[in-house]
Amino acid sequence: MAENEIFTRDVLIKYLNESDKEKIKELTERAYKVKVDNIGTKVYLRGLIELSNICSKDCYYCGIRQSNTKVERYELTDEQVMEAAEFAWRSKYGSLVLQAGERCGRRYISKVTRLVKNIKELTGGELGITLSLGEQSKDVYKEWFDAGAHRYLLRIESSNKELYAKIHPKNTRHSWDVRVRAIKDLIDVGFQTGTGVMIGLPYQTTENLADDLLFIKEIGVHMVGMGPYLKHSDTPLGSIADEHPSLDLTLKMVALLRLMLPKINIAATTAMQVIDPYGREKAVMAGANIIMPNMTITEVRKNYQIYENKPGVKDDASVSKSKLEQNLKEMNIEIGWNEWGDSRAFKG
Ligand code: 5AD
Description:
By secondary structure, the chain is of the alpha/beta class. The chain has helices at 9-16, 21-39, 78-90, 106-122, 138-147, 161-166, 176-189, 206-219, 247-260, 270-275, 279-284, 298-301, 317-330, and strands at residues 44-52, 95-100, 128-132, 151-153, 192-195, 198-199, 223-228, 265-268, 290-291. The structure holds 5'-deoxyadenosine (5AD).
């Protein structure tokens, strides 16, 4: 492997097709070294609050899609969110993520604005706030940014327009172009912006994955969260018999992305933990530097199953915290307590 290798489409495809365990190990170790040389060894935590599972979208892969009538819908109260925020702050997580299905009503938008302001106030501005609330107008993004949120996650899901069309309903509410526009709006507004894709989707090819990596580089985001696609039986795609993608494929994606973009934040996502109990920690050893421990209250966790077998649905925030700390300790991975852990690829 050349030190200054250029990751062209062909090179990426070659690595993604690699099945030799030794070669994969070499790739992930090289990515780990590039991470350490550029941004250090620490993992930063973002406590995850699943604010609501109400969703106006109908993505064919997602368990909380609007048409899934088996899901009991919820929305956390302001008090429940503030309690979780306080837990994150006291736990020295450094920052939190507010995530929910996609909604656009004025009442809801104002609630998010109010929550962001209240969390900032409660923590004297100490706790960083990331939002993951789907596609919104640029004005709404501005409103939330001005309220004090400074990071936003919006996955492109797949950079390939045809594949995107296959995994979403064919209407204007599920438009690839609108989604790309939204990612660009977020960058424009001033957010540290994250995107990402699902790995191992039905119909997805290795070429698509190579293009996903090139898309992520091209669009200029500061953070990335990618994870294996996992089927959910109560969804249209869930009826397609498919095996989980291998953890190796996800690790190769993480490692290649780290080599292409040495300074960005890359999340070791919860979906990785479904295909391997140490999936997230292995991703950290392949170049990821962010973990998002779940802090959602136990009562509603079971209702936020975007895929099946989501780990820790019976746990509460402190159990998720101690399990994660234990895992990280076993693997000698150091945590960046009380730090925002901003992307070093972000220049304000
Ligand atoms: N498997 C894996 N990831 C999924 N997501 C939604 N449904 C699934 C699934 N079945 C991911 C999407 C979304 C994020 C919040 O969860 O990428 O952006």
